[in-house]
Amino acid sequence: MGNCKNITRLLSDALDRSLTTGEWVAIRLHLPTCSGCRNYRKQIRLLRVAAHSVSGIETMDGAARDE
Ligand SMILES: [Zn+2]
User: Fold this and answer.
1) Which residues form the Putative zinc-finger domain (predicted)?
2) Domain region containing 14
3) Ligand 1: distance of its center to the CA of 58 in Å?
4) How far away, in angstroms, is 12 Cα from ligand 1 center?
5) How many domains does one find in the chain?
6) Which residue of 1, 27, 45, 47 sits 20 to 30 Å from the alpha carbon of 57, by its own alpha carbon?
7) Per-residue model confidence (pLDDT) at position 58
8) Mean pLDDT across the chain, nearest whole number?
9) Is 38 within 8 Å of 31 (Cβ atoms)?
């Protein structure tokens, strides 16, 4: 519970399925402590947005200055 490998897997899974309450709790406890996983979440969100957008490259550029 709470290690980065597990958390990033859950973040990825969340795009494809509903997470359990316990899984969300693990993510919510971990993200504030871990910039790596926050960045990962940001990236997969952008990938998801890009999949629905023609202008994916612009979206990525916007993310670069977000943090
Ligand atoms: Zn982490």
Assistant:
1) 4-38
2) 4-64
3) 27
4) 13
5) 1
6) 27
7) 52
8) 82
9) yes
Instruction: Calculate how far, in angstroms, residue 54's C-alpha sits from the geometric centre of ligand 1.
Output: 31
- Distance (Å) from CA 56 to ligand 1 centroid: 26
Distance 23 CA to ligand 1 centre (A): 14
Confidence band of 51 (pLDDT split at 50, 70, 90): confident
> Which residue did the predictor score with more confidence, 13 or 55?
13
Instruction: Compute, in angstroms, the gap from residue 5 CA to the centroid of ligand 1.
Output: 7
Shortest CA distance to 27 belongs to which of 50, 46, 8? 8
CA 40 – ligand 1 centroid, Å: 9
